[in-house]
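Ticket reopened. Same input as before:
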Amino acid sequence: MIRNRRRPAAVVAGVAVSTLVLAACGSSGDSAEDANTLTFLVDNTELSVDLAEALASAFEAQNEGVDVQVETRPQGGEGDNVVKTRLSTGDMADVFQYNSGSLLQALNPAETLVPVTDQPFVDNLEDVFRQAVTIDGEVYGAPFGTAMGGGVLYNRAVYEQLGLEVPQTWDEFMANNAAIEEAGITPVIQTYGPDATWTSQLPVLGDFHNVAAEEPDFAEQWTAGEAKFASTPAAAAGFEHLQEIHEAGYQNEDFASAGYSDGLEMLASGEGAHYPMLTFAVPEIVAQFPDQAQDVGFFALPGDDAATNGLTVWAPAGVYVPVTTEGDKRELAMDFLGFIASPEGCDAMTEVASPAGPYLVEGCTLPEDVPQAVQDLQSYFEEDGRTTPALEFVSPVKGTSLEQITVEVGSGIRSAQDAAALYDEDAKKQAQQLGIEGW
Amino acid sequence: MATVIHSAPAGQASAPPAPERPRRRAKSQYPYWFYLPAGVVYGVLFLVPTVIAFYFSLTRWGLFSQEFIGFDNFVQFFRERALVTGLKNSLIYGVLTSALKVVLGLLFAVMLTSQIIARGWLRSVVFFPVLVSTIGVGITFVVLMDPQEGLINEALALVGIDGPGWLTDPDLALYSVALVDVWKGVGLATVIYIAGIVSIPRDYFEAAAMDGAGAWQRFRNIILPLARPATVTVIILSLIGGLRSFDLIWAMTRGGPGFSSDVIASVIYKQYQAGFWGLSTAGNVILFLAVALIVVPLFWALNRKQVEM
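Engineering reply: fixed in the latest deploy. New output:
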């Protein structure tokens, strides 16, 4: 009993002490800030950190006395939380990397970011990227890394061994799959493990070139709330393709638990033949499986018509300056963005990571010896009309549960038609949140 | 957590022998203003945000703007198919984990209060999982439960059983997580029960021994009824914990595959992640009301019977 009686006092004392500690923490913090120091927040993928470090040290070498400190945050939804929270509390790093396109829109750039429209480097940006970081007429960022293609990474050794040709239509693709399965190789790699559910979206998102080929106004009407995935056959096709793959049993046996790196390994080793993916996986394949990297090629997701076959392009992420970066620091930050969007910046990035596609900055070049998959990707850029930016770069409306929905379709839990309707419903929330008319 | 461990044994100690209670009430050694610092912290960090949350649940709330939209968020939340699954899953999860913790906790407690070898060590072993980080437990079990390479299915394969996809089968995922939750939480229930059983006066057992009662009769007629306050504590605590559980589910399945193991809390979290802060707050208000509607009447019913006894 005696011990029991003492406890309340101890608790009160404990709380008092911890409040004092908290208060003490609050008052220290941001003293001694150096105008020549920039903090640079990037996501914590190995690639992003490598690129950021390379840019930081190249910029430091060019500007004496400047110190760029790279900070990291988680990827995906958790990272979105960090970025949004830090922006809304005025606690953002001096410059930060974040998605371009529809996700950028959700940061409310007009109030949170400094426009770079007047900066000289903006003239050097390619249209695809400039559009992806332009909101209400103001440009906001510099490109972090290269453009990417969304399509199918495939194993060329398997294709050679079985005498297959790169498919131009969905039917040809499925015929290839049948032949690959006969040879005892997994035709389509899918990875729905807890950290890799995002990979399930590629068959839908990467199909947008085919959607736009058939319905050129889809993006506009989708934004206006007039066109829907469920009621547009070309748009619902992505979901249906995923369902077909599942029903044909073309997935790897462990698709439900496999992770992203498992998928890359299966592809590089030739255990699996196709992996619907963004080409940003190429640098990682090169780093992890240097001997097999030349076996990995790339083709755009095939649609109904061979004549309109082409590539869905992802603009790179951007580097932005929040409004909380002020005075001299803001100028330094602008210089840093200018450096990132310059040939020197591109070269600094090329040095640490093999490019996943073309840089969207005038004057930037790719090295001669780019990996096979990137060469394949380049060929789409060389012809007019064979590339289309992904839907998320031409419309602010993107549902947030797509990855769960595509996992359901790819696992046979939900039918393609039902999934398309559910995605329409999902996108509605985003549109309403952004205050877009027609939803 | 800490308060739970402290208050529970004290509650049990006071319940069966009645005269103790008034004596403790009468004499508080410290004046009430000693509670002020705690009161301020509680008010600022808990009460005020709770009240504000009720307002924000009626707005469309983004980074810098908020717009009053009445009950639209609630309408939207109830139209969402994921929420209906979430609500159902939360109930299944809460009831299942709570029931298993009561049964297993009581069994362990009976075993650990009897004269067995290495009793102290066994008590630590049972309590140990409570001390481990939930996320750590979650990640560990994700590895163990891997359908192809996990230790569990490999062990089953040795005896010729083809193990299921514990976390990848949409019909099974929620139950697998619930079982891990029980593994992790049963230690706490056991400790509460041990305290309850130990505080039963020895006289009852001696009297029963004189009458020649066997082990089963001692359990059925002495331990079970007299450990009732402990049962109430375990049920209430684990039910509340189960209804609002989030961390373990998030670490193990993220609500997947698809939406099949989503609970209310994970649905709310996903809305928050997506930047739908008003909608997410509305979800929290719903969760608050749901927990209150289930637990308050239950608490009342359980405690009323206790007084009658």
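The CA atoms of residues 59 and 145 of chain B lie 42 Å apart. Strands of chain B lie at 59-61, 66-68. Please confirm and we'll close it.
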